[in-house]
Design brief:
single chain, about 375 residues, mainly alpha, two-stranded antiparallel ribbon, about 0% strand, globular
């Protein structure tokens, strides 16, 4: 009985074979590239594939970075699932870090400072997402353009405030003072030390998934994403739902900024979150815009990034080569995931059509008419 349950179907075996073939091709390609760029190509591949577990510190780095990716990935999912292609997570992260960091630097060791700072970061991200959301809802401004421009304003505004108001006189680089340890996110364990940003990020992903799939507001948001005209015809406040979706996305990104500031850098640093918002877009797309899958894709992508950092140090592989290889691996994974998802949707559509065809009765055909004299 157990062997029968473990027996795999032919389509599953074919899919598994494709995955294994893709992995083998990727390893062969990396070996070829590393043979030209490293003195130890086999060691470079080993470092890339096992770098996340090479030491407790590397494992902590992998989990911490993946936690940040979970938050920005969940942020992007909230917007993308509603049909709003907001790419403003990058700027919202910086605004959240700045708002939370300012609260900590101002209040110092006051009880409850960390909680107030996290709330300030969430509000900052919400407001930074609210502006392009209102522009989209009431002025029909393209959200891609507006959120992209807001990113530039946030990043350069962050740098300006750090340099002019928060940088200590003896600092040779744009940074703020270190936060007091009372404002740091606590860690679990010592080797590796796991930041509480991880359970926080997982909880946010679960909450975002439940919001979209189990609540009335989530149904309305998804309906606006599928068909705004249909949502409007059913009496839904389309304009309010549009700006609310982008603002909620900004709130989660602001929380990511707080997690980076209080769980990673422990102070405000110029460029402290560069690229994390756009990496979150990639994580969300790999998760098919489903917040429940974001923790898995974030851990995978974070592991690849950590392995890339390791081989830069241990195998003298240029950073440019590492970034290219990371992009190739992600492209292969995305193609496989998207193809399988498309196949599932096609099968589901065929099944739905067949069920409709079975349920719809055939039109009644009129029999031969009889004349009175025939009987």
């Amino acid at each position: 009985m157990l062997m029968r349950r473990l027996r795999l179907s032919r389509p599953t075996l074919i899919t598994l074979g494709k995955w294994l073939l893709a992995v083998a091709a990727g390893v062969a390609g990396m070996l070829l590239v590393f043979s030209f760029t490293s003195d130890d190509p086999v060691g470079a591949i080993q470092g890339l594939l096992t770098g996340g577990f090479s030491s407790p510190g590397r494992m902590s780095q992998w989990i911490l970075y993946s936690s940040f990716l979970m938050l920005t990935g969940a942020s992007v999912c909230l917007a993308f699932r509603v049909g709003m292609f907001s790419i403003g997570a990058e700027g919202q992260v910086f605004i959240g870090a700045l708002a939370g960091g300012y609260v900590v630097l101002t209040l110092g060791s006051t009880p409850g400072t960390l909680l107030l700072a996290i709330v300030a970061a969430i509000i900052g991200g919400f407001l930074w997402g609210l502006l392009p959301g209102m522009m989209k809802a009431h002025l029909a401004v393209d959200e891609i353009v507006s959120t992209l421009m807001m990113n530039y304003i946030a990043v350069f505004g962050f740098a300006f405030i750090i340099k002019e108001f928060l940088q200590p006189p003896n600092a040779g680089f744009p940074v703020s003072e270190f936060f007091l340890p009372a404002a740091w996110l606590p860690t679990i364990g010592t080797a590796p030390a796991i930041s509480t940003a991880l359970p926080l990020a997982i909880a946010v992903c679960i909450g975002a998934s439940l919001l979209l799939s189990r609540t009335r507001l989530g149904y309305q948001l998804r309906m606006v994403g599928d068909s705004p005209k249909f949502a409007h015809a059913n009496g839904m406040p389309v304009a309010r739902l549009i700006w609310l979706a982008i603002a909620l996305s900004g709130a989660v990104a602001g929380l990511a900024g707080a997690a980076i500031a209080f769980g990673g850098t422990h102070r405000l640093i110029l460029g402290m979150a560069t690229g994390i918002g756009f990496d979150g877009i990639l994580v969300a797309l790999l998760a098919l815009n489903r917040p429940a899958l974001v923790p898995v894709t974030a851990l995978v992508y974070g592991y690849i990034r950590t392995g890339g950092d390791v081989i830069q140090i241990t195998s003298n592989v240029p950073r440019d080569v590492v970034v290219i290889l990371q992009g190739v691996v992600i492209l292969v994974l995305a193609a496989l995931i998207r193809r399988r998802a498309a196949a599932k949707r096609s099968i589901a559509s065929d099944v739905a059509l067949e069920s409709v065809a079975i349920q719809v009765p055939e039109p009644a055909t009129a029999g031969p008419r009889t004349r009175k004299g025939d009987s």
